């Protein structure tokens, strides 16, 4: 594929000059339009060393308002960054609405340079094929969110690559930029090219296609890149007009019958005596404490997420789960309404930012399921958005588990009667009053709508590697023991599968 | 000092039980009060290895609402963290209003463990004495912001330390927690104790005193720590009532005469012909490009901040400054109104978060001077707050320069007539209209009040290591060349001082 590119293509100076002036003005206007329409833009520049990526970034941004873009040079991951799924560090750098992010190298280096230099093992999990899949999901999620993505591969022949590297090395101003990895690209040109071809084929999707750029003539390359970038932005802005659907209706107007009612099948009479509770709890806590040593030893990240009805006892269960743990080894993060910084990013962004690192236990009090629960019921997410979210969530969770995360998902279930009982109790207890808000009463009125949303969410996001545990929580003793036992069992199973 | 502590102090079980119950309920109520009053709380736990810090954190948080606190275990800094001033990583972890942060080890390890294990060199800059000063400023800034700080030193005799380490090492559940550094503490007990004493003396300030805790009896230690923590919180909450001053008046009501009018002394007729401009600009840009190699080579962080009247040409100057630079080596960060996450933190927090790392150039379009300019004039900061800010800013900048930062501060000065001319031009230019907002017109009406604020700010924050450069900017050519030449000269001076 790459060897059929006509690398002789070039432009005379006069044509170049007039083209580039026109394009730069056009891009400047497009930047303003993106800003006005809150369209996030991702530009990916990949290609051979010395193929002119830096010059291109400089060219593009020289005409732009510096308040609207960020340049992200991507180096090999730091020790810190290696402790997360490989896409983690790119999620941190995603553009907010209206902003443009230029990735000078990108997530693609992971399946290219890392592969060439054998920093990836062949039998590793996730495999290179899985990584391509994760990249495709990632880009599709961004495009669905409304992001415009333009990806460029700047191509050089082996001869040109070598000659440029030699020129660079001679010049004091550029010599420092030539890394030993760049020389290796030249040495293993054909192997690298075959990896690149595979990558281009596997990730040139309908939503985010690659543009191959004949980069031996700098003028040709610049005009081609700018032309494609301008057309990507124009298309994305046009799409926006079509996508602007009417404000979505709250779920109250769309009550549907679910396939099967999982919640109704829960035996809410399950309970434990105080004596059994204390015995079993203590036993499970000690087990967990011991498992923590292995989590630490084998660098395993654990993430437990807690969903449930208001007053179902999430807080109490979390407290018992963590009571005996070393406070340096876990953290609890409660998620409430998103901040304004979070509001201008993809809804998964804030969860990516808070992931536990290897060897620690992260506990999320509420989670990304808000997208298909409260956001659906209250109409904050459109029907298209929350329906799409099931797949996005499954993809996200698969990325976590394939990166070695132990993922435990709880729904704490109580009956509406038990909830009312607890609300009343809270109201009358000065010490607990702060826990009860007007929102809790409103949510309670929407019980039936939540019931549908929860059943559907659990059904659509139950996967072999990330199953749900529905906990009968009318009896707090039973629920707390069930939670901690489930965490223990899941970690034990993961440890066993390592051996 | 430490050897006079009576380590025999202890409590019988019954007294302990009743005391601890009472204290935990009190703390729980205090946490609610802090949450309600938006009071941020910092708890620092330092002391010998195995002195019970972990048990204490567990004890305290077991009674608390997990949505209101974070535990920050502090390990030796990562390679990433070492690229910033040493307080950088603690700024990232400061509690938002209403939250409590428990530091399990803290900034004090830097002047204690790092010192014992010779990770700090004796002739380094900043010196240990300077570090104590930086810590004291840091804590005073937090207290002035309204933060309650409680600091505990848990003390053990050498004999007890050794015996505990041996016990820990024997038990499977605790063995992993004993680091080789802990054994070294026991080995070099007296040296470590003398460092600790020096630290305790130097940093036990009126606003944030240390509490020394006799930690050989766990019961005694827990009751003492909780009692002091409760009293610190109670005092802070009481203080809050006193501090709640009436809403501050905008500066319009408080026009004062400054000592000398620096801005009036600027020769605004300075200008350059187009030919001179292009020659000098190109020459300076090439120089900067070369200096960039040294910045990279010697790992020097550079921070250039741009302040100036609306339409003074900050954007244009930044563009010319960066045009020839490698886009991987610098970033521009524009600061506008704070986000809601930023609003619940100290005003310097958002600038700490964006500092350039070693070897890169950070360019801030507006900066922390907003505190003494727009926040003063508009009345967003009280008079106490903005007056206090001069000192805080000087301290902050001194921390940067003593950590090796090259700091360049610009005020771009234009006349009111020139501003009006540029506003009108913007209004009539479809391409530039977005740059002009209603706020610009309002700021213009406040010209005289800003004039006073700017003069005062420049006078009070001009220091030998962080001087201001006031740039005559009626002529854009002159201003742009002046800016880039100043950056070049400042970096050159810093490089020279290295040799």
UniProtKB/TrEMBL annotation, chains A, B:
<dbReference type="Pfam" id="PF03976">
    <property type="entry name" value="PPK2"/>
</dbReference>
<protein>
    <submittedName>
        <fullName>Polyphosphate:AMP phosphotransferase</fullName>
    </submittedName>
</protein>
<dbReference type="GO" id="GO:0043751">
    <property type="term" value="F:polyphosphate:AMP phosphotransferase activity"/>
</dbReference>
<dbReference type="InterPro" id="IPR022489">
    <property type="entry name" value="PolyP_AMP_Tfrase"/>
</dbReference>
<dbReference type="InterPro" id="IPR022488">
    <property type="entry name" value="PPK2-related"/>
</dbReference>
<dbReference type="GO" id="GO:0006797">
    <property type="term" value="P:polyphosphate metabolic process"/>
</dbReference>
<dbReference type="InterPro" id="IPR027417">
    <property type="entry name" value="P-loop_NTPase"/>
</dbReference>
<feature type="domain" description="Polyphosphate kinase-2-related">
    <location>
        <begin position="11"/>
        <end position="236"/>
    </location>
</feature>
<feature type="domain" description="Polyphosphate kinase-2-related">
    <location>
        <begin position="272"/>
        <end position="497"/>
    </location>
</feature>
